[in-house]
């Protein structure tokens, strides 16, 4: 996996009002990618972010987002030059908090015991 240099004009992420577009580099060329507004909200764990906050979230989470984009690109059978989209459903849920995990474990144990 090759990251596109952040100072390259083509690699700069851009908020277009609905998604953040960005590029990754596979060593042969750039792969156009985008992450949806909803996916960024999922990453941030919020229900609303201003555009500047969305870009901050993207920048802070770019390695994770690029990893998801690489996985989606790698799973393609056609590998055309069309854009790789990262949607809300592509974002793994946050890990369960300790109290919730403890409640689930108690219920599981009571069901078998």
CATH names the topology as Double Stranded RNA Binding Domain
Number of domains: 1
CATH superfamily grouping: Shew3726-like
Q: Biggest β-sheet, characterized?
A: 4 strands, mixed
CATH architecture: 2-Layer Sandwich
Write the H/E string, N to C: EEEHHEH
Strand order of the largest sheet: 1-2-3-4
Number of strands: 4
The value of Rg in angstroms is 18 Å
Shape: flat
In the CATH hierarchy, what is the class? Alpha Beta
Unreliable runs, pLDDT <50, ≥5 residues? Answer: 1-7
Determine the strand fraction and express it as a percent band: 15-25%
Which structural category fits the helices and strands?
A: alpha+beta
Number of helical segments with 4 or more residues: 3
**Overall mean pLDDT score?**
81
Give a topology summary:
Blueprint: E1 14-15, E2 19-25, E3 30-36, H1 37-44, H2 51-74, E4 84-86, H3 98-112
Parallel strand pairs: 3-4
Antiparallel strand pairs: 1-2, 2-3
Describe this structure in words.
With 113 residues, the protein is an alpha+beta fold. It has a single domain, classed as 2-Layer Sandwich (Double Stranded RNA Binding Domain), CATH 3.30.160. A four-stranded mixed sheet has the order 1-2-3-4. Strand 2 and strand 3 form a beta hairpin. The chain starts with 13 loop residues before the first strand and ends with a helix. The N terminus is likely disordered.
Supply the key terms.
alpha+beta; flat; disordered N terminus; Double Stranded RNA Binding Domain
Explain briefly what this protein structure is.
With 113 residues, the protein is of the alpha+beta class. The protein has one domain: 2-Layer Sandwich (Double Stranded RNA Binding Domain).
């Amino acid at each position: 996996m090759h990251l596109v240099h952040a100072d390259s004009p083509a690699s700069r992420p851009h908020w277009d009002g609905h998604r953040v577009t960005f590029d990754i580099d596979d060593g042969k060329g750039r792969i156009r990618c985008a992450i949806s507004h909803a996916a960024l909200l999922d990453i941030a764990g919020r229900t609303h972010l201003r555009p500047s906050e969305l870009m901050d979230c993207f920048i802070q989470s770019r390695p994770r987002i690029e990893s998801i984009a690489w996985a989606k690109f790698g799973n393609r059978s056609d590998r055309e030059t069309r854009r790789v989209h990262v949607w809300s459903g592509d974002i793994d849920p946050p890990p369960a908090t300790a109290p919730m995990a403890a409640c689930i474990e108690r219920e599981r144990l009571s069901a078998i015991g």
